[in-house]
Amino acid sequence: KNVLEANRKLAQENRALLQKHGVKAIDVMGAIGAGKTSLIEKLIEKLKNRYRIAAFKGDLTTTIDAEMLSRHKVEVVAINTGKECHLDANLVKKALQRLKLDSLDLLFIENVGNLICPAEFPLGSDKRIVVISVTEGPFMVVKHPFIFMDADVVVINKIDLASAMNVDVKSLETDVKKINPRARVVTTNCRTGEGIDAVMAALGL
Amino acid sequence: KNVLEANRKLAQENRALLQKHGVKAIDVMGAIGAGKTSLIEKLIEKLKNRYRIAAFKGDLTTTIDAEMLSRHKVEVVAINTGKECHLDANLVKKALQRLKLDSLDLLFIENVGNLICPAEFPLGSDKRIVVISVTEGPFMVVKHPFIFMDADVVVINKIDLASAMNVDVKSLETDVKKINPRARVVTTNCRTGEGIDAVMAALGL
Ligand SMILES: Nc1nc2c(ncn2[C@@H]2O[C@H](COP(=O)(O)OP(=O)(O)OP(=O)(O)O)[C@@H](O)[C@H]2O)c(=O)[nH]1
Ligand SMILES: Nc1nc2c(ncn2[C@@H]2O[C@H](COP(=O)(O)OP(=O)(O)OP(=O)(O)O)[C@@H](O)[C@H]2O)c(=O)[nH]1
Ligand SMILES: [Mg+2]
Ligand SMILES: [Mg+2]
Ligand SMILES: [Zn+2]
Ligand SMILES: [Zn+2]
Q1: Is B36 in the pocket of ligand 2 (CB under 6 A)?
Q2: For A132-155, what is each residue's pLDDT tens digit?
């Protein structure tokens, strides 16, 4: 559709702008409550001594996540998505205008909790992460193939609850590799920080 | 927008058709992996000796949930939603044409896992349930007010994991009542069936 095509063009413009200013952007997608904010928090804690970081958070009405992230003394832009169920390149373009890109190295973009639409709306980032949680059950990957096809890194979170959920983490990993052999899969506990070093390595950070 | 208005009209037509044939329809919405299918399964087990039941399941590509539900010997229509992130009244209208409505009393409609869009797309059901899981964290209700505004029943599921998640179930319940004082809130474990009788009572079944 025209909407998707227009978005793709804007995404390319965003990408060019970010690259021109040497800012690496990472699009963090995932299911509702899967651990996107917790993951970004843990990454910020580990990386802020090496990178100058900013973050975007797309949300309907609240700024809960944006406030949580800004406690880490990084610049945060809360993007009001209205009733949209995904971020788009236009919203990101406007948010980029609020940053001093020359004084940044790394930008985390937390997408709206959704395993469907973000797959169709690239934002112009360098890397795309998808976060799923073992608490969603064993079929999360096979039910949503499209979002995993474009993922650079897939994070399987809340592994501390895998046995309570009776979910086989290895088989979720296999499901990802079948859909996207080049995706790097990392298992994490984003509360304790277990697995975060591996996420950083997978992102090349 | 025109799309929303057109959907509302079709929803009213669906509602009229269901009422004409004496079929009660229940729209089961909720986050990805929150427990929608498990809830419907448990309700079918308890109700199929008293009601003639059918179910719809909206999904992208797989028929995992539809197959799971049909094991209970009820008629199931798997609705292929393509890349749509919500069911709409038109898809439901077409699916209704595949049922012999005169030989049914109760229809469960499992929506796509999404706490945003289904709020804007009524389907023509009598009752709307929203299922959330404690594993999504403590802010699930306040972050998605619109879907709770229209809910008749809110199910807070996976209470067996509430202490592992450090989530206060009572405070989630308070969040719902603030947004929608008339919603009936029930806490459940949809694996064991704990709370299912209360869900039935809340639905008037
Ligand atoms: N047990 C456990 N809880 C976790 C883990 N990671 C995050 N959580 C908790 O899960 C809940 C949701 O985490 P968030 O980081 O807010 O998830 P999110 O994907 O950003 O959620 P939304 O932005 O609301 O879609 C919070 O209560 C977290 O503390 C984990 O590895 N294990
Ligand atoms: N521990 C626990 N697990 C549950 C509970 N209810 C459901 N589950 C599990 O949670 C996973 C997801 O449940 P489903 O019923 O498939 O959830 P859903 O909302 O239909 O998921 P989608 O249709 O894929 O969005 C499954 O592995 C269930 O067995 C519960 O109360 N406690
Ligand atoms: Mg978040
Ligand atoms: Mg389901
Ligand atoms: Zn969407
Ligand atoms: Zn949507």
Answers
A1: yes
A2: 999 999 999 999 999 999 999 999
